[in-house]
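Board work, copied verbatim: Metallophosphoesterase
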Amino acid sequence: MRILFLGDVVGRAGRDALTGGLPALRARLRADLVVVNAENASHGFGVSPDMVRAFLAAGADVLTLGNHSWDRKELVGYIDGEPRLIRPLNYPPGTPGRGATVVDVPGGRKALVMNVMGRLFMEPLDDPFRGAQAELAKHKLGAGGSVQAILVDIHAEATSEKMSFAHSFDGRVSVVVGTHTHVPSADYRILENGTAYQTDAGMCGDYDSVIGMQKGPAALRFWKKVPGEKLAPAEGTASLSGLFVETDDTTGLALRVAPVRQGGLLSQAFPDF
Ligand SMILES: [Fe+2]
Ligand SMILES: [Fe+2]
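↓ predict structure ↓
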């Protein structure tokens, strides 16, 4: 299965790059499954139902979230009706929405997409490790199983937590990809037991910024401790940033992995497979 994952879409620049670029990118990569983290799409904070519809129409199959899941409060009443939009599964029981979803993939295949959130340096939620383990117990990966691929978006600040998560589930899922830090890491690879991994996919946003937000006001926050200008997304051309993975439908594990960086300020990267 050919799987494209794109990191946090930030503001209008990120939205425009995604809706403008994804149809051609999806076609060029011949992607079977496209997953996009949408937690910062609405002015940096959350995502609106209209944006969800636009991203799905542009070619995303599943959208994930993170610590900004509820910044657009309309999502609380919307998320239960849209199974292609998931939020971290380790929110407390009773939280609206779901933390994992199974989608149909061309060729009669199915894929499980899961979203978990780390706890180090973040709002503490339930245990993402045990939460993921419980969800995985409901599925069987590979030919003859319930799903032929499993992708987990781990939305976390700490590299150590992301790596620990990936090694814990190495060989049991197809892809573990990190989000939230908004900067693509160079450690994309296939782990020992066959899981593709990248500590952070980077963001779909303007990199002439502080993690997607206008650099002046963002930097000032570190200089002055009185409230200053409100943070707003940077408005230059965005880079689409993420990871592309090809998996074996028989084992459900990764065969090849490569970064994707398209447009904007970042050095460009495109898979050669
Ligand atoms: Fe983010
Ligand atoms: Fe985040």
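The first strand starts at residue 2 and ends at 6.
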